[in-house]
Amino acid sequence: MPARPTIDDDQRRARLALRHRLAPGARADRAEQVVDDLVAVHATDPATVFLAVSARLASPGTADTERALYRDCSILRRHGMRGTLFAIPAGLAPALYASTTAKAVARERARLLKDFAASGRDAGWTAQVEAAVRAALADSPVELTGSQLGELVPQLRETIVYGAGTSYQTEQSISMRLLRLLGMEGSIVRRRPVGGWTSSQHRWALGPAAPEQPTAAERAYAQRELARRWLARYGPATEDDLVWWTGWGVREVRTALAGCAAVEVELAGGATGFVLPEDLEPVTAPAPWAALLPALDPTAMSGKHRDWYLSPAHRPELLDRSGNLGPTVWWNGRIIGAWAQRPDGEVVFHLLEDPGREARDAITAEAATLRLTLADARVTPRFRTPLERRLTA
C-alpha cells in the first residue's frame, strides 16, 4: 500500500495565509471575495464581520462591507453551523439552509410551540402573529426594529414564563423568540443596525417565504457541497475539525467527505487529515506577514485542533471559558499574542513570545492601520479573554 501524502505544519500555514487572504499579496479588493474565501464569518459579535473582512482587504476599512451587507445584499446574515449567526455569501444560503439550518429550525420551532402552548398560546395563535409580522414588514416603506414591530404587532410585546418551577425560571418576550425563529428561517432578514457598524440592534426587512424542510437526499447533497467548499479553504483538516465546525454528526461528516472524494493525508504527529483530490500539490510560502484579527475570527476558530497555529501554552490567555478566541496577533501563520482597543481608542497589543524585530515592526504597522479603520468606533468583544481584559485596564 503506498504511503499517504504528508502535509506538514509549515505547508498548512502557507495555505492558510494565501487562501484566507492574510498575506499582503493575497489581499482582496472587495468584501465579497473575503467572505467567499472564508466560507462563513462569525456574526454573533457584529464587529467581527467588519474587522475580519477589513484585515484581508488591500484597502482596509468598513465601508465596503456595509455596501455588501446593506446595499447590494451580496453578503447575508444567517444562522448556520452550531446554531451560530454567520455572514455568508448570498449564493451559499440555500446550501447552508438545507445542510445545517433546516434541522436547527425544526428543533427551534418545536421548542417555541411547546413553550408558547404552555402559556396558553396555541399553534394557530403563533401562525397569526407570524403572518402579522410579515404583513407589517411588507406594508412598511422602511426597515423596522423589533420595538417598532412591537408597536404594529402588540402580541410581540407579550411575555411567557420559561422553565417554570425550575432554578432557571425566567420571563422571555414573544418578540425575542419569534423574530429569532423567523430570522433563522430567512422569512425576515437582518438589515442595517441602529447606530454604527458595531451595533447588534438590527432592523428587519421582509424575506422570502421559509423554504420547505429538505429531503434526506437534498440534505446529503448540500452537506457534500458545503464540506467541499470548506475543505478547499481550510484543508487539510481532520474529521474532528469538520465535525466541530459544522455541528453535524460523525456519520454525516464521513458521508460528506466520501462524497467529496476527499483524500487522506498525514499531518504532523501522524494525525489523519483530508484534502480535496486536486489539492495535493504544495503551495509556495508567501513573504512574512502579520495580522491583527478580531475575536471569533474564522481563521482562528476554523477547527477543533489548533496546536499547529496556537501554542497550548498561550490558550489560557487567549480563550474565554467557553473556548472562544479573543482578538489575536498573528505572525507567519501562528498566534503569538493579543490586541485590544482602550477606551480612548488606542490599539495596544501584547506578545506572548518574542518573534524578532521584523515581526514587531510589522505588527506595529498593522496596529496603526487598525486604529485608522476603527476611527471613532469602540470595540469591546462580546466574549472577553484574560489578556484582552488586562490590555484594556
From TrEMBL:
It comes from the Bacteria. Pfam families: AlkZ-like. This is Winged helix DNA-binding domain-containing protein. It comes from Kitasatospora cheerisanensis KCTC 2395.
